[in-house]
Structure formats: C-alpha cells, structure tokens
Amino acid sequence: MSPNPQLFLLLLILSASAFVIGCYRRFSLVALGRPEDRLDAPGTRFARMLRLAFGQQRVLGKPFGMNHFVIFWSFIILAAANAEFVVSGVLPQAGLAALPAPLQHALLFLFDLVSLAALVCVLIAFARRLFFAEPSLSSDYVKARSPEALLILSLIAVLMLAYFGLHAARIMIGMEDPTAMPVSAAIAALMAAPLATDPTAVATWSWWLHALALLSFLAYLPQSKHMHILTAIPNCFFAGLERPNTQPREEFARGMRFGAGRVDEFTWKDLFDSFSCTECGRCQEACPAAATGKSLNPRSIIHALKTNLLANGSSLRAGETPTLPLLANASDTGPGEGSAGDDAIWACTTCGACMNACPVLIEHMPKIVKMRRHLVQMRASFPEELSAFFENVEARSNPWGIAPTERTKWHANLPVRPFEQGKTEYLLYVGCAGAFDARQKQVTVALATILDAAGVSWGTLGKEERCCGDSLRRLGNEFVFDRTARDNVKLLAERGVKKIVTQCPHCFTTLKNDYRQYGMELEVVHHSELLAGLLASGQLELKQRVAQFGTVLFHDSCYLGRHNDVYSAPRQVLATTTGASPAEFVRNAERSFCCGAGGGRMWQEEQEGERINLNRVKEALQQKPDTICVSCPYCLTMMEDGLKDLQGGAVRVKDLAEVVVEGLRA
C-alpha cells in the first residue's frame, strides 16, 4: 500500500536534493583544510572503527550509553526497513512481499521488535532531557531542552509510531501475517472494535506520516548537529592511531604563517572533527579546566570551529579575509559564538582527558596547541607570566633562569659519574626540576641511590644537560622548542646515548616521542618502569618492607598514563615495596584527574574558578590517606601546595623513588 507514488517520488526528489546539497555545502568546507595523511594502516583503522563506532565501546562506558547503543543499532537495522519503505513507495511491487515468505517474516519480526526498542529508548531520552539532564547537557549553545534536540527525538518517535500504525492497520486489513509482527499485532488488537477505527484510513494516514517524518529527517539532517550520524563512523576511521603525546613539527621560513589563527589553517581532519561532534559533553565532564570553572570547555572549542567554518566558508572559498575571527580577546561577556577566547586557549593543561573520553575520537588538544602556536609566534600574545618563562628557557635553558653551572649541585654529597660513551649504559636525564627545584632534588638523590644499590651503570650530562623543551612545545613556542630539540639531539648523538632514564614524565614523553621527529631513536624509560623491572628481576633487593608511609594513595600523572600508557609499573613498585596494592582515587588510571600543571600551566597562575590541584587534593583527602604517592615533579609540587592550602594535616606527598629508597635502609 503506497498512496500516490508520483507525489511521493516528487517529495523524495526534493528531500534527497536538500540532503545532497546540504552535505555538499558542509563537506566541501572540509576541503579548505590543509592536507594530512590519514589513510595509513587501513586494517588497524578499520578494526578500531568496528570496536569504537559500531561496538560503541566508549559510549557504553557510561550508564546512559546503553540507551544510545540501542538507538544507534536500531538506526542501523531500520535503515533497511526505511530503504524498503522508500523503494516500495515509488515501486509498490518491489516491497518485502517479493521476498520468500520465511525471509520476509524474519525481517518483519526483527523490524517490529527493533522499532519497539527504539521507541522505548527515545522516550527515555525525552525523559532524561526534560527531567534528569546532567550538567554537561547545558552550555551556551547546548540545552537539554533545545528545540533541535527535541525535534530530532520527536521525528524518530513519529517514525516508530507511524510504523506501528501502518503495520497494525495492514494486519487488520489482512495484508500482513500477525504472527510475524507481535508488537504490531498487539496494537492491531487495541485498534479493533472498541475504537471503531477504519484500518484503511489508518494505513493511509500512517503511511504518509511515516513518509513525511522520514523525508523531513533526511532533508534536515545535514543542517543539524545530528550530521554526526554521517561523520562519526568515518571520523573513528580517520582518527590518529597513536596517543596524543606529541605535536606535528613546523617549518620555519620567511613569509610563512605558524599555528592556526583561522579555520583554513587547520587540517581537513580538524575540520571534519567539528562536524563529527555529537555534543554529548563527555569531554567537558572529563576536562579539569571545565570542572573547576575555567573559560575552557573542549566541546565549545569544537563548536566554535564548526560555527566559524560555516560563517567564513564562502569568504575563504572566494579567497577573501574571514569576517568572523577564530581567536578573540575575552571580554566581560566572553567571545561571540564561532570564536574562542584567549582565556580558554591558555586554560588547557593538555592532559588528554577530553580525547580519552570522546566516543568519536575527536582530537581537541592538538587544535588548542595549534591556536597557541599562532598566538605565540604570530601575535606574541600570551599570559604575562610566560614572558619570563620563555626568556629563561631560551637564555639559560631552564624555567627559573638559574645559571647552568648550578645543575650539578643536587649531588653535592654523591659520587655522580659523567656519562661515558661505550661504558655507561643509562643516561640519567635529571631534568630541570630534578636539578633546580629544592623538593625534587630529594627525589633525584633517592633515584641515584637506588640505581647504585641495584648496580645499574648510569651517568649524567652534568652542566651540559639542557631543558628538554616540553612546556615550550605545549605552550605553542615551537620556534624555541625546535632549536632546543635540535641542540639536544645533536648533544645526545655526540655523546653516544642509547638509553635514558627520567624521573619526569614530561621529559620522558618529550625525549621518547617528540625527538623521534628529529631522527633520534632512544630507549627512554621512566623511573617507575625501570624500578619495576629491577624489583621483578631481583636486581634490586630491598632490606625491609616499607610500612612507615601508612595508607598510600597513588596519583596517575597524565603524561605518564594517558599519554604513554604507563599504569601498572608504578603500582607494581608500590605493591612490592609496601606489601600492599596502593589505594586508588575515584578518578584513576585513564580517568585520572590532572594535577593542573601540564601544558605549561606549571608556569602560570590560575585566575578563574577553583584551583585544579585543590580539586584533586580534596578528592585525595576523602580517601583518608597517610601518603599521596606521585611519579612526576609537577604533580609533587601541586599536591604539596594543595595540602598546604587545604591544611591537609599529616598527609605526606612522596615520589615513587622516595618510597622505594626507604626499603634499602637497614
């Protein structure tokens, strides 16, 4: 039964045209982005797409995720039912009735149950948005009760209701077998004598209601945020294969522009990301800046990118200057829609929590770093306190501007040896904090003591060691980082360094990952990994179990964990050293909450909202630990400062090496 195929064909052509034109207008804007290769390792990409897009792995990580999972798969399955509806609307003789009876009945049974599941889940989604919306469903542009969100849910509900009305009426007429469609058969029974309904009229009205809802959805889809239905799956395929532990290099030459100050200076994948955002708010929930009242909301950054692209697309295609700025100075009312404020760009700790939470693998953090590069290198616009930091690193190769000759004073009472090519196995890369920060020097001494006790062959570069440049790169000062990296790579190559052990995750990730872009392939291990290996092999033998630190609560460093997947090593070390697994934060491992110092935030003040380290320390104190154990100099500083501010009493903060060294005492 397909009333007036000619009229339906006309409406179908109009709807399909609107769909194609809408898709073309948006996808053609993606081509404005810079080229980027995202087709390597297709097998790996396809497998990940199946797991994350079709398997909805990250979506299912939250309670409401099951509801979305059902809607997603209902959409996939009912695409076949809707395709049959469209075909039979134009060619009535080409419907399911043309199939063998067993196959036809199986499909009708499946479509019937899936339609019911979809309707139930849509009603749950309605209730959630109207009565139980989470904070992440509310922002400047996302509202739980937004007309667009409710319209999409309404269209889906209408599709399901029209489906049941149509098939119930056909069952009443005798056109379909009720045994193949139990839900529709039940509705048909309700529509019988007591309601005195005309099944032919119901079938006709239901058919047209279904047709109009389907065609309206098709025409509206490319214009709405639900375009992610088309882009989310390929976005999972094209997403970066590696963890976000480095940034692309820049070439420096006269006349070149650096970073991204307008949308066409991003890559095509960056722009494709903006159309893939589902606005679910998971990145916002995970972001330490957003959680503590800062201007930054990762979802807002992606939304601004999309809005800016749509606003400036025509001008950019014509080779004209964009009319809407991407980067705008924050005002009392904040930047307008389609622009990102400076305060938001500088609030990022580059912890990677947003990317780890995103169900469609949007890459928020690299975009922020690209905008920082533009602000630093093209506009010389950055927070005032960074001026001294940049000058100190550039002039004296450390954040404090201390004379390089002071680098060796941490080992005044230790027989530290210089690294000798061919004789020394490990270079102990002390790092700026390990050499200059009074508190972190204690960690360096502890680590050196452990290495000697284990008989490890190690040495240092002494006064020749330079800052690795981690904060420079994450803050967007790529020019100075590039020079720093080149000098360090040259020095390490000249000294014949093959293996490096670090106590700082920021040095660790920079030497291990960033320096590969400069042709330096090193075996870099964090001290937690080395200690775990030494204890497991018996090369490091403890004289006693360490019990004086009481209940030990372990904090994951973002740059060790999320950026480099090192989670088990520090826990193994603590379990071996203390005889018990460490206590855990509520937010731990991949969900760990940042200390607030990454991404160059160590060198800036927090002017907005709650201090990030206070948020983390409050969470720690709820666990009532005796000791908070860390594996990062930045985390050590932030935890100790937080305990002082919150009057944390007798709670201590210890680095992993400081816990282990206690086990060497007789």
TrEMBL record:
Please report the stretch or stretches of sequence annotated as the 4Fe-4S ferredoxin-type domain: 268-299, 338-367
Which keywords describe this protein according to UniProt? 4Fe-4S, Iron, Iron-sulfur, Membrane, Metal-binding, Oxidoreductase, Transmembrane, Transmembrane helix
Q: Do you know which InterPro entries this protein is assigned to? A: 4Fe4S_Fe-S-bd, 4Fe4S_Fe_S_CS, Cys_rich_dom, HdrC_iron-sulfur_subunit, Helical_ferredxn, NarG-like_sf
- Annotated Gene Ontology cellular component terms: plasma membrane
What stretches pass through the bilayer? 70-94, 106-127, 147-166
Q: Which Pfam families match?
A: CCG (PF02754), Fer4_9 (PF13187)
An example of a GO molecular function for this protein is: oxidoreductase activity
User: Per its UniProt record, what PANTHER family does this chain match?
Assistant: IRON-SULFUR-BINDING OXIDOREDUCTASE FADF-RELATED, IRON-SULFUR-BINDING OXIDOREDUCTASE FADF-RELATED-RELATED
What is this protein identified as? (Fe-S)-binding protein
UniProt source species: Geomonas paludis
